[in-house]
Amino acid sequence: MAIKVVQRPELTFWEKLYLPQILSGLKITSAHFFKNLFLHTFHLLGLLKHLPASVTVQYPDQLRPLMSRFRSRHRLTLRDDNTPRCVGCMLCETVCPAKCITIVPGEHPDPHIEKYPVRFDIDLGICVYCGYCVEVCPEDAIRMDTGILDIAAYSREEMQLDIHELMDPELRKPLKDCNLKFPHQCTKESSEIEGTWTTIESPTSIETGKARDENTS
Amino acid sequence: MIEVLIIKLVLAGLVFFVILNFAGLHTWAERKQSALIQDRIGANRASIFGFRFLGLFHGLADAVKMFTKEDIIPKGADKTLHTLAPLFSVFFALVAFAAIPFGDQLVLGDMVIQLQIAKIDAALLYVFAMLSLGVYGVILAGFASRNNYAILGGLRATAQMISYEIALGVSIIGVILVYGTMDLSELVRGQGHMIGGWIPFWGIVAQPVAFLIFLTAALAETKRLPFDLPEGESEIIGYFVEYSGMKFGMFFLTDFLETIMLACLATTLFFGGWQVPFLMPDGFHFPGGMEILVPNLVYVLLGVLSFSVKVILFCWLFMQLRWTLPRFRYDQLMTLGWKGLFPIALINVMVTAIVIAILEEAT
Questions:
Q1: Domains of chain A: which residue ranges?
Q2: Out of A25, A37, A58, whose CB is closest to B36?
Q3: Cα–Cα distance, A77 to A123 (Å, whole number)
Q4: What is the tens place of the pLDDT at every residue in A47-69?
């Protein structure tokens, strides 16, 4: 290993005097100070709004634009009749490295659709936001494009999303009355299945199923 | 006699009201000024009824927080001294303001009011004595906390303050020599006349070197960056590490009070105190022979305004320096104090004395 002699920069007499260097430092900070003071004053008067006076983002009031591939909170995509596109294939639950997804599949009345989720839970307290569930989904039924970043809660229970919240990203806990029509398990504890397929106009779902078949063939 | 007492009490109340509020505003100024320097916005969230008012309420929120926080005295610490230390600091920082003249004589009817709480003949000595006694607060805080780091911080602070006090004291001897008085109001009056009718005979004109030494030593006295080794809140634990709540707040307040104190001193000694250029007691006298006469009240108010503006400018400069310069290393600090400022101050005093002797010989 060759030895490399690094010449330390020697301070010149001018630099050793301190004062010129302090003045040049003051020049920089004062330039920033007066420029920003000037801009802030004009902003208060409603002028020169296009020139920002600070590089910071006022977070809750002002959000930074997200990249289109940014992975935020999950959502389940919907069919035209407001039922989940999910066919309960369990691929996402299988691929999930954190094992935060729980799916209970049920039989779909439409013969063209394999299954549907009676329960679809994601525990955000466990989720690592890897996005594998999105990549693996054959039906484009789960996406991470809600743009929701401020996921915070006072208890672990509040971090657990169920099918209601996943289908409607606008929903926040505590949830109000359930408005899902198809049979599903409303809460984790009760094994009771609420809702019936008859309330949903079955022709639509069958038609969309047919349409998909035609597209693929 | 009783009027004099009332007038003095009113003056004292007024000065302390203004000074304490100004010290409180310093927290706001510190936040906002640093934010502007660093292209940020600064604290702006505290609001009363949704009314934020540029973050001014953060000072209020700070005060509420300080007063409601738990006051912790470490086990084994000396309770009396631990409580006395912040009181000492604030007390001596506050009483020093008594000798600062913030305006000329105000004539109301047949009463002549000196706008200075206490007219002391050796006011400069008094101010410096009070500033020196402030060291006791610091060393007591370190000693009474029963914390080795606090003691070390206190020792650092004491060493620094005593070292720089010498440079500070020697630097102003030149000013005393030039104006021939230690009475601050006489000293300010002495800065009133013009050299050749154009340049005001302020301390900075007569003693520029002393001014630079004074400014540097003053920064060190306030224990703020670039000389904040006694505190170093974030890394090298300082003397008030064992203080919480309002006791800590008092140390914080002392810092700001000392900043204002030294801004006042710099103004009084080097920037003509309440003097306004070309303003004589009876009105403006411009060199072209133009004269605008003003009544006594306007003259005094202009003087107070001039004093306040200069003090605020100095506070701004101290704050700007605080956010510009990095911290000195301890050996650099001592080298600068003992091998840099002190000899230069001594030479300055000698040169001043010789020049004055020669000038007096000539006349």
A1: 75-199
A2: A37
A3: 18
A4: 888 888 788 888 888 888 888 88
| Residue A28 pLDDT greater than 90, yes or no | yes
Predicted local confidence at residue A132, as pLDDT: 94
Mutation test of the interface with chain A: which of B37, B54, B313, B316, choosing the one with the most A Cβ atoms within 10 A? B37
Q: What are phi and psi of B343, to 5 degrees?
A: -60, -40
Interface test with B, best of A24, A29, A42 (most B CBs within 10 A): A29
Distance CA B127, CA B217 (A): 15
Using CB atoms, pick whichever of B36, B212, B325 lies closest to residue A32. Answer: B36
Q: Is the peptide bond before B226 cis (omega within 30 degrees of 0)?
A: yes
Q: pLDDT tens digits for B315-362? A: 999 999 999 988 888 888 888 889 989 999 999 999 999 999 999 888
Distance CA B33, CA A36 (A): 10
What's the rounded Cα separation, in Å, for the pair B102 and B297?
14
pLDDT range class, residue A202, cuts 50, 70, 90: low
Cα-based distances in Å from B30 to A207, B34, B109, B226, B265: 68, 6, 43, 15, 21
User: Distances from the Cα of B120 to the Cαs of B183, B235, B267, in angstroms?
Assistant: 6, 42, 18
Query: pLDDT tens for residues B272-285?
Result: 888 888 887 777 87
Which of B359, B352, B363 lies closest to B170, judged by CA?
Answer: B352
Q: To which H or E segment does residue B320 belong?
A: helix B296-322
For the entire predicted model, the pTM comes to 0.82
pLDDT band at A134 (very low <50, low <70, confident <90, very high): very high
- What span, in angstroms and rounded, lies between the C-alpha atoms of B222 and B255? 6
Mean pLDDT of B176-197: 84
What is the C-alpha to C-alpha distance for residues B28 and B42, in angstroms, rounded to an integer? 9
pLDDT attached to residue A199 = 65
SS (H, E, C) A171-189: CCCCCCCCCCCCCEECCCC
Cα separation, B317 vs B302, whole angstroms: 22
User: What's the CATH fold of domain A75-199?
Assistant: Alpha-Beta Plaits (3.30.70)
CA–CA dist A38, A42 (Å, integer): 6
φ and ψ at B193, to 5 degrees? -80, 165
Is A54 in contact with B41 (Cβ distance < 8 A)? yes
Contact at 8 Å (CB) between B164 and B333?
Answer: no
**Nearest alpha carbon to residue B22 among B320, B314, B325:** B314
Q: What is the pLDDT of residue A205?
A: 47
> How many Å is the Cα radius of gyration of chain B?
22
